[in-house]
Amino acid sequence: MKRSFGVKVLGCTMGATMVLGGIGSMMPNTALAGSSDKEEGPIDVWQRAAVDYDKVANVQGGFTFTQDTLTPADEVFNLFGTATTTICAKPGYAFDEVTHEDYYVNVGGVVDKVYSIGLDEIERMEAERKDMRCTCGMSPAVAMASVTGVKVSDLVEMAGVGAGANTITFKDKDGYGLPMPLSYVMEKEALLVYQVGDKPFSDGERLQVWIPDTVAKYFTRAVAEIELSVSEEVPEVEGPDADYRAKVSILNTVSDSFKVGDLIAFEGYADDCGTKVTAVEFSLDGGETWTSFDTSSSDAEDWVYWHFDYTPEQAGIYKLDVRAVTEDGTVSPLGSSTVFEVEE
Would the pTM count as exceeding 0.90? Predict the structure, then answer.
């Protein structure tokens, strides 16, 4: 028995279909018995493909999961470094470069003492290293990264919270930032981050706020000001859009077909931004039946990074669908799929 590995793709592909081996297009272009010679358009291919796949009811395979797998730093920057302000925090490339020595953060507003602190001094403070997710609330993008920075609470303590202050805003060099409840940021132990993995941020951004279980639009880049204020109505922290709850993705693809009896190894993640994922489910018959694997022993702070091994018993063209289920009963609105071919 041969184990066939795919090439792991750490970009996010939720809701998309990846091609495995020898198929040559997003959907198989095989001839059907009784079909005409009329050339098919893309819509025809997609519609026909819905019934083209060979099906296996109640698919069985080996399943394991971990929660300590991290996204490489380069992929984190690729996923979120080009995001627009409307989806995530403003991208780092949009800012002018600032030398390490000239980068300062102002802490002010409703505080006992306004002060400025340089990046050099921030890096000399007691550092915190934490594994944390970064997930867009309005797109499939998600990453799990090891970040290094200082506690926001330490910076706030140095200024002293003024009377009635209940809101905090992290502003970039252009003044962009979203207000958040001060108590929320303190309870979540937010970090002002200067390094992802072993890589510092670019000369344009230098510092970024990271907050556990919080969508990335609050992760202001190039933080230049931390402002405390008094709000009559404390701002609400928004979570992921309903379409992007229970995110799930298959992260590997290959460039060759498989043989009957091969052990095919799939891997990917499931995550719901602070809500526990209690099951990952697989279907090989277009969603007519689902095989559920329990992940209720996982915690909600980290993503569920899963592995699923499947051994095909017959030749054919198959589509594997994956979805996640959370502790509050949410089922992935957008699942993930991959198509693969098995030969005799």
Answer: no
